[in-house]
Amino acid sequence: MSSDADYAAFLGQANQDTGAAKTSSSEDKQSGGFASTKAVDTDDVPGALKAVDMVYTSESDEPFEPVSLQCDASKGWPDEKQFLSLIDHPGKDAQVSILAPDEFDPKDRYGEVMQAVQAAVGGGRGADGDKVPVKVYQVTHDKTRAEYYVVALDKKGSRIMGLKARSVET
Predict the structure, then answer these.
(1) What would the DSSP string read from start to end of the chain?
(2) 53-107: per-residue pLDDT in tens?
(3) pLDDT for residue 27 is more than 50
(4) pLDDT score, position 150
(5) Lowest mean pLDDT among 7-11, 125-129, 147-151
(6) Spatial distance between the Cα atoms of 54 and 59, rounded to a whole number of angstroms
(7) Is residue 158 a contact partner of residue 74, using CB atoms and an 8 Å limit?
(8) Beta bridge partners of 146
(9) Cα 49 to Cα 9: distance, rounded to the nearest angstrom
């Protein structure tokens, strides 16, 4: 029977780069084929976002990560082009779709994610007492890879906050 070290060596050799994908950058390889994007540009990430311990169910089952990006929230929601700029997406071919929460989560699997985003921005209620609106920005990197940003506007802090998860879907 082989030892754990032998098995680890086998896996290391099997996962070595064969040189076949010379067109992708080393940054892309490090991020699993996803373009390198920004999720946090401030040190002030609410604890409600850091405390979420959920994964987005897809072929990659990636965890949700905090998002806190400076923007002029007083002007309202960023459009698709502005959102790509906020996350510093390097690609020209990226597509952004803005989804309603029920389009993103029709089976209500991610209620904890929605609640954490709302709690991070005004404790779940806006200045007018209404529920904090949440939107989902789907950033499509290629035919099989996408990122979902579940976010709300923090008008007091002039930022967009929430959670994001990567998805691989074939």
Answers:
(1) ---HHHHHHHHHHHTS--S--TTS-HHHHHTTTPPP---B-SS---HHHHT---EE-SSS-EEPEEEEEE--GGG-S--HHHHHHHTT---SS-EEEEE-HHHH-TT---HHHHHHHHHHTGGGB-TTSSBPP-EEEEEE-SSSEEEEEEEEEETTTTEEEEEEEEEE--
(2) 999 999 999 999 999 999 988 889 999 999 998 998 877 678 999 999 999 999 9
(3) no
(4) 97
(5) 125-129
(6) 15
(7) yes
(8) 140, 167
(9) 37
pLDDT of residue 125: 59
Q: Of how many residues is the chain composed?
A: 170
Number of Cβ atoms within 10 Å of the Cβ of 80: 15
Contact 108, 154 (CB under 8 A): no
Tokens of 43: 């040190």
Q: Say what the pTM is.
A: 0.77
Q: What is the rounded average pLDDT for all residues in the chain? A: 83
CA 63/CA 53 separation, integer angstroms: 7
